[in-house]
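Q: Got a minute? One more chain.
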Amino acid sequence: MTQDVLIEIGLEELPARFIDDAEAQFLDRTIKWLDEQRISYASAVSFSTPRRLTVLIEEAAESQASIEEEAKGPALKIAKDEQDNWTKAAEGFTRGQGKTTDDIYIKEVKGTSYIYVKKYIEGKSVQSLLPEFKDIIESITFGKNMRWANETLRYARPIRWLTALYGNEVIPFEIAHVKTSNFTYGHRFLSGKLTIDEPKQYEQLLKDNYVIADAKKREDKIVKQLEALQEKNEFQIPVDKDLLNEVRNLVEYPTAFVGSFSTSFLALPNEVLITSMAEHQRYFPVERNGELLPKFVGVRNGDDYELETVIRGNEKVLRARLADAEFFFEEDKKLSIDFFQEKLTRVVFQEKLGTYSEKVNRVKTIAKHLAEELSLKELKEVERAAEISKFDLMTNMVNEFTELQGVMGEKYAAYFGEAKEVSQAIREHYLPKQSHGELPVTTVGAVLSIADKIDTIAGCISVGLIPSGSQDPYGLRRQATGILRILKDQNWDVTIESVIEYTLSVLKDAGLTINTSSKDDLLAFFVSRAEYLMREENIEADIIHAVVDNQLGIFHVAVEKAHVLAAKKADDHFKTSQEALVRVLNLENKVEDTDHKVNPSLFQTESEKVLYESVEAVKSTYAEYLEAQKSEEALRLLAGLADDIHAFFDHNMIMDDNEEVRKNRLSIIRELSVLILQYADLRKIAWKQHA
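A: Always. Here it is, folded:
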């Protein structure tokens, strides 16, 4: 006979951003535990609201599956003595398995005989095992764990109740002085304490008491309500997926409503209005034909009782925020960019890296250098955008609405008469804001974004602020990923190595102390981010290492080479060429005298002469292909040497007894290796046709 199992953790309201991950952890660890304990079940589902995390296991077996297990003991030569008697080692092994030496049998493994016993493990009752759920609950981690009151348990919020049922029986355990029961709670204000008679009634019981336990069903309910409001009011509600996800995790029983604000606030930039509504109040903005309306849509945690009162309260809160924004906006416009720039001299960016003003000066130098290297015509705009890139951080508006950094910089710069390219670059230099976020679209914005990010990354890593594990307070991984994505998006022919080297020189010239390992640390850091991006393009790890380990170089070219090699890896027709090129690289480390020049007069065979002449013939064209970033053609040129390479190896003793001949042949190997390694280290690829 089977039974349903229900485990619910009742909590003080969880932060919305913690809920989805915690629910997933709870379900995943439950399923893992069931599998490890050999407990069969029909299904396992999870639920979550701001006040609860729940798993429901349907049709769990009454007992674990019993198993017969083979236990391996010591080698036979240890298990028996010279008189063919069982040793203490054999006796200790069997005793530990609950068996005797009479149960021993012998099996051979890789030429060695071992003793074995078979043991039968009777499955325990599931009811006796279920209190172990205490460990699962305590193992759930959150974005921030805290210790509450005098409890030793660190959790996101205090546990207020624990529901644990096996059928209609309570599973006994206790966490943080909270004992399990068959009680749960409905909506905080619209219901109260509820008794659960059996696990299957859980979801419907809560729904009857104004709690929709399934997060997806809450989301669907919100979406349907938004659609109904759109149709009724003939406006559009642009639904941001992240905001919708957050709102569904803020309520247990959603009811959407429409509020309004004074049309005078529409004079504020749209970004200010949307930030005030979405980021600060979790409201959805409202549009008609692409234009913002003086309205908003909120979602109440409850039913529609006294909804008009709720609407008026929300309107009052938003009105106050918009009034503040309006005041800040008008006050900021009375000042000047120079005023805000001067304030930057007194604000520290990072203790070891100086003030924001000092950072801006470094960014300006890096941005100018990068623009010159790329021969950009917008040099003047790049310098000006870099110079004023951080002024808006000192404005009243950004001080109050930090999410608007860059956005207000663009608005204010345009207001104060800066060129459009300069104003737009101030906003764009913060892009991408997430690893896969929007990239700068203007050249000036892209240059400034790279310069700002590389200054932060190089500065932080140089003073020892290297990300570890999940800790990355300065967002260095995101920023490095952003740099690589921008370089690839813009198809810019600049190497990561040169950007790193120049940035470190700027930091050093600014009087900052640079660790001796900074260059290597930075390159390794960027290589790791390049690997991350290339894996996302389904490029296999061995190909990535072949391309980037020796030199990361120009990133978009590295990606192109990787794709070319990926195609060749699966191409049987490339086998002969690959074998020849790898054959050359395998002897590369035998070259001792790297300055030795090939001397044609020392050739003793025709194959030496042919290979040397073939290599010399392709050098200039190969270099042109690499310069023109024709990766397919460059590899094809190398592959064309395959027959000559094989003939060279087949008809010559490379490590000849004659030192001069040996050096000469190794010099041919060295010259060819240099060409191949300019493309990739093909030795690192697990060529499929060799399997």
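A: The chain has a mean pLDDT of 93.
Q: Perfect, thanks.
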